[in-house]
Each structure stands twice: as structure tokens, then as C-alpha cells.
Write a structure and sequence with these properties.
Oligomer: single chain
Number of strands: 7
Shape: globular
Strand content: 25-35%
Number of helices: 5
Radius of gyration: 14 Å
Structural class: alpha+beta
Order of helices and strands: EHHHEEEHEHEE
Helix content: 25-40%
Length: about 150
């Protein structure tokens, strides 16, 4: 089930984010820094933050539904519980996210992938995303921007 994040989810999401040690390491962060930065992002008004549950938090996502420069929807974060990697759960959750939370609002989706995160890039390419350009995030990280257009 997908829930819109609000303060009632803060503790559960904080606990979930602390467990994502591999994702934090890919971002060059400690689990605590990763948790704190993403909780701050989840509480910002510019984005819609989502919590996926099956009783426990199993994934989170953060969407910017209309980018102020390019007008597309940006998927700023999509993290699935590490113990579920390789099970197909991430693909099922992403398909639900796209169907319920993305397609009703936009036809162009973008996201950034860290250059050294080959596994993530392959995942997004399987979802129909293609390389658009290199860019630098607000945090100063180099990313590959991937784009998907829905006809």
C-alpha cells in the first residue's frame, strides 16, 4: 500500500532509512546523515513523499511533480528495503508508483543516477528510462539524468 508521508510516519521512515546502509554508502553518507537529509526532504512542501508498506515500511519515494525549469516530474528518491533487492519487489512497487502517482500528473519523467551505481542504472533502463545528460545535483553530486516519455 502507498501512503502519503506526514509526521505520523516520521519514526517508521527514520528507522527504515537507517537500515539502508548500502544506499547511504553509495551516496557517500553515513546512515545517520542519509536519514537526516531524507527526512528533511520528506518534510519539504515542494515534493510529495510516499511510504510503501506491507505492515512495515518496505520502500519510500519522493516526487517533484512539476520541475520549475523543465516542467517534468522528477523522481528524487526511490529506495526499497535492501533485503528485498533482487526479488522483483522494486519493479512491482515502481510500476504501482508510476501508475498511481506519476502518470496521472505528467508524461515526462526524469531522475538522476549516480555514475557508479550501475545496478540502479540497469534497473531504470529496464523501466524504460534512457540517458539524457550529465548534471550536478544541488548537493554537488555528479549524476546521469535519465528520462522516460509516456505517449
Amino acid at each position: 500500500m502507498i501512503h502519503v508521508y506526514d509526521a505520523t510516519w516520521r519514526d517508521a521512515v527514520a528507522t527504515f532509512l537507517l537500515r539502508q546502509r548500502s544506499f547511504a554508502a553509495l551516496n557517500g553518507q553515513t546512515p545517520e546523515t542519509f536519514r537526516d537529509e531524507n527526512l528533511t526532504d520528506f518534510e519539504a512542501e515542494e515534493t510529495v513523499s510516499l511510504v510503501f508498506t506491507d505492515g512495515d515500511v518496505i520502500a519510500v519515494a519522493d516526487l517533484l511533480k512539476k520541475h520549475p525549469v523543465d516542467g517534468s516530474l522528477w523522481l528524487g528518491l526511490f529506495v526499497v528495503e535492501e533485503k528485498h533487492h533482487g526479488t522483483g519487489l522494486a519493479q512491482r512497487l515502481y510500476e504501482q508508483l508510476e501508475r498511481e502517482q506519476m502518470r496521472p500528473f505528467q508524461t515526462v519523467f526524469r531522475l538522476g543516477v549516480l555514475p557508479h551505481n550501475e545496478r540502479a542504472r540497469r534497473f531504470w533502463e529496464r523501466q524504460g528510462y534512457v540517458y539524457e545528460k550529465d548534471s550536478i545535483t544541488a548537493r554537488g553530486d555528479h549524476v546521469h539524468v535519465l528520462k522516460k516519455i509516456i505517449s
